[in-house]
Amino acid sequence: MESVRREWKYFDITVVVVLALLAVYACLAIHAATAGNHSANIPSHVMSKQIAYEVLGFIALFAGALMDYRWLRKAHWWLWGISCALLVAVFGFPATMGAHSWISFHSFSFQPSELAKVAIVVWLAKYMADVEEAEVPDYRLRKQWIFLPIVLVPFALTFKEPALGQALVMIAIFLTMYSVFARRGPYAVLMLFVLGVIALGVLATTVFTKQTLAFVDVLMKHHILKGYQAYRILTWVDPNFSQDKYGYNIHMAQTAIGSGELFGEGYGKGVLTSGGWVPNQWTDYIFSAIGEEFGFVGSAILVLLFLILCHRLIRIAQTTTDPFGMYIAVGIVGMFAFQVFENIGADMYMSPSTGITLPFISYGGTSLLVNYFAVGIVLSVGLRRRRARLQAQFETSKGRLA
């Protein structure tokens, strides 16, 4: 009992406070986006469901914190295998909004790609920790071929649904974790690759816009990209592209954010939000509701909360002596950071719209519960860092005696 009490001294209450504030933001934004909107796509009893998800989310958060995260190290293959099996199973269920992304039973639905993201984090953390803990760590690239199927299999299945946004999150998770794991040469190659992608994106939207538009058209004609995926890229490259049709969602989202100016139009007073002019505003474009009704100040506070959350999770990664726990925390941070940047960036033409929801803010059951549980796992790492430190010291002293 005494050891449990000592461990809970390491519980990061700041994370819980930040998540509670994000929950308030979520409920206010979803209510604002749905109260005056009579779209048939809005789930029935949307607010009561969201509040229920928030309550269940906090239960999942504390369940994850109470659980000893180290048992995931033994279950990494099971978790990855089950998530891939579920990603295959989705194709046996009817498509929802054109995508086979959910397993549905009556009123219950589950999105396997959310679980797959956490499974990738756990599997990569296990492998990377094993390498670091070896007597002679081997970081050679030829020993890392196993990364390809582990990441690309769920990526391909998710892309096939099609759910491009979720698939890209999996790549972002791998790049984040590998940037910490890689040494010297591989790290330099990775950084050059990332910088190259960023440079291509800048050039594609500034200097070579016509060539980019033509290239995307070729990808669409050869069925490499779905029509709606290509149009999302086209609206990112050229903000004036088809504003009355394919670029309508992004154009209205940006207009809503701009109309909020500094302090916003006031809660419930946003013309575009209350009038339901921004499609799917309660999910993919939820940030536009916050921007219109709470303005730059309210939006900046939301971004600050995300920064504090990521900072606290990174702090846990820095202070634990267990490589497995450290890599889990790094992967979870990478997952959240990419989703936040991509979702908010898409609303302001900073990145192409890929259908990624805003963590802890957008309406949804599976994503919310998995996100809360993922944070709980990182809190579990923080709670047990003292035990991990003592164990590491014991093994070091035992090695010296030997």
UniProtKB/TrEMBL annotation:
Subcellular location, principal = membrane
The source's superkingdom equals Bacteria
Q: Which InterPro entries does the UniProt record give? A: FtsW/RodA
Provide the alphabetized UniProt keywords.
Answer: Cell shape, Membrane, Transmembrane, Transmembrane helix
Q: Name one GO molecular function term.
A: lipid-linked peptidoglycan transporter activity
UniProt-annotated location(s): Membrane
Q: What membrane topology was assigned to this protein in its record?
A: Multi-pass membrane protein
Provide one Gene Ontology cellular component: plasma membrane
Query: Which residue spans traverse the membrane?
Result: 12-31, 51-71, 78-103, 163-181, 188-208, 294-312, 324-341, 361-383
Q: Which GO terms describe its biological process?
A: cell division; regulation of cell shape
| Pfam families, per database record | FTSW_RODA_SPOVE
Report what the protein is called.
Cell cycle protein
